[in-house]
């Protein structure tokens, strides 16, 4: 590691050690706007937004060199349907109907991309009305389907991304999405997968965000403990249905312009509207700053499953395994996969700390290259946070009841390796 990188890493680590979660407070309802690329560092973002878990907005200057901002947008700021059809016309995409409620979400179907664009053009022509309803292209894994396309570059502030690092490693899934929708399309009230962070960049169009800080959602639950589908619905004023609504804070409201990026903190519930015909790039991500929140979320999810099927506990021999299977079907992960997730993240950092980065790896867009870019002390920070969560997981009674013989290395051995790597790196 050269002197400049070491100096940056040392400053970053000093900034972290001099701050604490919750010590940095924003005025209620205020969201910082980050204007200049050249004067805002990763350490600034880490200290002022990741650790305190506060939102912010990045100006359009942070995305002005993206291929999608140059090529997907017409001269007057509208989606360039002809260009999009040329590049992606034969793709099949997930589309939600915003006019239909299915449980606490919207029903989805798979449509040819060219059919969706045809619908969208007709929807605009008919003054944003259609007998098919308001259709919203959501959660499209475009980067995975078209890796050769020059769409965007992940900003360095979001590069410590354990979710996509892990799912890329096992080549199963990713949490990088494209959203496209007409004016009036929207996403109901929710918090992001695993209570992850998210970032959302508008390629064109404008969005309105209603954000509730983590914990505020408790005041929005109805008398049965269910969250609302729409936080703007008049029914929330009915105290017989939503008895604690009047105790909730007003939401933080953001109007996001074309080119801007919104950072959504971990566990913040939100509802989002497209104020114009809009295209956005979205990532969900977890790292050392919020992995403990992900672990708490998984414990809460398992506890909810256990309560739901508690009456079957005694007659079913593999009840604990069944609970894990149900949790995985609902959330996408169980305790054993969470262990493997932590292992992959840890081993990537140990490899860089112990072996450095070869020229071939540094030239590629790889997790190890990202680790090196952020600095060796960031890798140590990641390992320390992994040790804390892995220690808690290993001591968890539900985890210990599972058949752990398939885990390699065993949790105790991995913990020992992690602690030794940290000690060696700090010598």
Automatic annotation (TrEMBL):
Gene3D superfamilies: Cupin. Residues 143-302 form the JmjC domain. InterPro entries: Cupin_8, JmjC_dom, JMJD6_ArgDemeth/LysHydrox. Pfam families: Cupin_8. GO terms for molecular function: 2-oxoglutarate-dependent dioxygenase activity; catalytic activity, acting on a protein; metal ion binding; sequence-specific DNA binding. GO terms for cellular component: cytoplasm; nucleus. One of its GO terms (biological process) is positive regulation of translational termination. It catalyses: L-lysyl-[protein] + 2-oxoglutarate + O2 = 4-hydroxy-L-lysyl-[protein] + succinate + CO2. Keywords: Iron, Metal-binding, Oxidoreductase. Its cofactor is Fe(2+). Belongs to the JMJD6 family. This is 2-oxoglutarate and iron-dependent oxygenase JMJD4. It comes from Nyctibius bracteatus (Rufous potoo).
